[in-house]
Amino acid sequence: MPERLRDLGGVVGHLPTGPDNRITDVPGVRVGHSQAASGQATGITVIDPPSLPLRGATVSINGVGELTGNLEVNERGRIETPIYLCGSHAIGTVLQAAINRSGRGPQNVVLPVVGECDDGDLADSRTVIAGDVDRAIEALGSEVAEGTVGAGTGMNLFDFPGGIGTASRRVGQYTVGVLLLCNFGDREHLDFLGYGFTPPVRKAATHGSCIAVCATDAPLPADQLRRLALRPLLGLIRAGSYGAEGSGEIGMAFTTAAEIRVAGDGEMNQLFIAAWESAWEAVLNCLVAARPATRLDGTIQDAFPVEEIRAHLAERPGGRRPVE
Questions:
Q1: Which of these, 81, 118, 107, lies nearest to 96 by C-alpha position?
Q2: What CA–CA distance (Å, rounded) separates 80 from 134?
Q3: What is the mean pLDDT of the chain?
Q4: Domain span holding position 264
Q5: Which of 125, 209, 241, 278 is catalytic?
Q6: pLDDT digits (tens, 9 = 90+) for 154-180
Q7: What 8-state DSSP symbol labels residue 16?
Q8: Mean of the pLDDT values across residues 12-26?
Q9: Does 249 participate in catalysis according to the annotation?
């Protein structure tokens, strides 16, 4: 596995992490990635809850993007399929593959949840095939590779390589985990624990976006899950996103708990903090893990300065410490 923020000596937030600091710390949640068989810099990521259907909700800060099935999810407070992530122009193929995998007949309609980000700077995601979806399902497990993998293969993040980032937090007996498909941000607004970055050689040519998936085992009702779904998007803001024109920031939250209990104000605040901190750290994990690739125009993405960041964090007063 590539290095992560904490491997470099960086810590954000104050709440304790789950055992692996990943979305799969929520019991039963699994993640799978596949790369496109076409060889294009694109792929599929699947987030699979332990059982379906389950309670969930969606929200957006800037709705220039797509998360299929979101109207039904918000109307009924229920998610009926795994969550699929892909490049923008693969969404039709992935949607059809998800319908076929559901096992539903024509008289039992299913509307899969598929989220997309625009990887057209580096890949032609029209080349994705149903077999790529199958291989992501076959790869489901508790290990979660980050950076330029799966759906994140051809993404940009603050004009560095982007992709997949994940993190988790513990709140009492409950876990909150976040997985991001990161494809957003202008470098001049990136806040990586006080490090100063040089301007990009060439800014990303495509619009950005981020799909933020928040999982928990807290037994929240759908209306509180909708509120929770917003907090990872606030974590993007902490890292430097401002919800740019043309950039879709879309969130989803679900609970694996079968029972329902309305959380009190104090408990909800802790869950909000957990989702916010997890997303903030997930962005930074993605930057550390992602690796540069060649764009379709032949130029190469700027590499994220991992060793410079390591030295910067070592020089911070007190070394490894939470950020105030």
A1: 81
A2: 18
A3: 95
A4: 8-306
A5: 209
A6: 999 999 999 999 999 999 999 999 999
A7: P
A8: 98
A9: yes
Q: Which of 80, 116, 146, 249 is catalytic?
A: 249
Is 311 domain-assigned?
A: no
Instruction: Name the pTM for this structure.
Output: 0.96
Give the CATH number for residue 226. Answer: 3.60.70.12
| Region for residue 194 given its phi and psi (left: phi exceeds 0; alpha: psi -120 to 50; beta: otherwise) | left
Is 118 part of a structural domain of the chain? yes
Sign of CA dihedral 181, 129, 80, 62: positive
Chain CA centroid to CA 14, Å? 21
Owner of token pair 């799909």: 211
Q: Is residue 319 part of a domain?
A: no
Q: Which of 34, 168, 247, 278 is catalytic?
A: 247
Across 201-225, average pLDDT: 94
Mean pLDDT of 65-77: 97
3-state secondary structure of 92: helix
Residue 235 backbone dihedrals phi, psi, to 5 degrees: -65, -35
- Pairing between strand 83-87 and 43-48? antiparallel
Cβ atoms of residues 4 and 278 within 8 Å: no
Classify residue 171: in a domain, yes or no.
yes
Mean pLDDT of 255-259: 98
Is 209 marked active-site? Answer: yes
Given the structure tokens 């009190």, which residue do they identify?
A: 264
267 has catalytic annotation:
no
Instruction: Tokens for 202, please give them.
Output: 């060439």
What mean pLDDT is predicted for residues 241-246? 91
Which whole number is the average pLDDT over 83-92?
Answer: 98
